[in-house]
Design brief:
This protein is mainly β and 223 residues long. The chain has a single domain, classed as Porin, CATH 2.40.160.20. It has two helices and nine strands. The longest helix is centred in the first third of the chain and has 24 residues.
């Protein structure tokens, strides 16, 4: 499936979910607790730059700048505890230089190449906010991130080669992050920095011990 179709399909999905949450929030439902369900919940969109790299590679390998975007659902569990589930389109990979020993067949030694991996990532995060102030509130969160493989290719110059047959179709990341939560009108703004470490080798064949890792700065807006 062409990548632009994936982009627009995901954007349409996220927008539909956000609109549905906004409609539901107008008529909150009480589930027998002191607060209605939707008064404890927030649903929104988040996006931002990602610096991706991989462990276990040669010294010539370097990280690459990419992007992430998607939607999230955040629910208040208690006074300071929250649970968040996200669905994110995340780009990962690395940059490197073709060496004499490489068998890529896409250039000559010394040429730079880019390995681009894309995933649908589903983090399940527990979040802690130390205060219930109405202003700026810091938070920390962490948890696992399950991934659905979407696409992979190697590119050098104008040459593009699909390498999907080499890539594992599953990965489980471990996330730790921190940020701030700011009420804005009837919604809220979040800004966060997170680190994700992949726990599964990304290659099914060939190099062993190579795993994804990313730093991401994400900005979100929820209702």
């Amino acid at each position: 499936m062409p990548r632009f179709i994936k982009f627009f399909s995901l954007i349409a999905l996220f927008t539909t979910i956000l609109i549905s949450a906004n409609v539901a929030a107008v008529e909150p439902k009480d589930f027998g607790s002191e607060e209605g369900f939707w008064s404890r919940a927030s649903l929104g969109l988040k996006a931002g730059p990602v610096y991706a790299s991989q462990t276990g590679l040669t010294a010539d390998a370097d990280g690459r700048w990419a992007a992430a975007f998607g939607c999230y659902f955040n629910y208040k569990l208690g006074r300071n505890a929250f649970f968040e589930i996200e669905v994110l389109y995340v780009e990962k990979g690395f940059n490197s230089v073709i060496s004499e020993s490489d068998s890529l067949n896409i250039g000559v030694p010394g040429d730079k190449y880019d390995v681009d991996l894309t995933y649908l990532e589903i983090p399940l995060l527990l979040e802690y906010r130390p205060t219930e102030n109405q202003g700026l509130v810091p938070f920390i969160h962490g948890g696992p991130a399950f991934t659905v493989y979407l696409d992979s290719h190697i590119q050098t110059g104008s040459i593009l080669v699909d390498n999907s047959e080499l890539i594992s179709k599953t990965d489980i990341g471990l996330i730790i992050g921190t940020g701030i939560f700011v009420p804005v009108g009837k919604g809220n703004l979040t800004m966060e920095l997170r680190y994700t470490y992949g726990s599964i080798d990304i290659y099914d064949v060939g190099i062993q011990g190579v795993r994804n890792r990313t730093f991401a700065f994400l900005v979100g807006f929820g209702l």
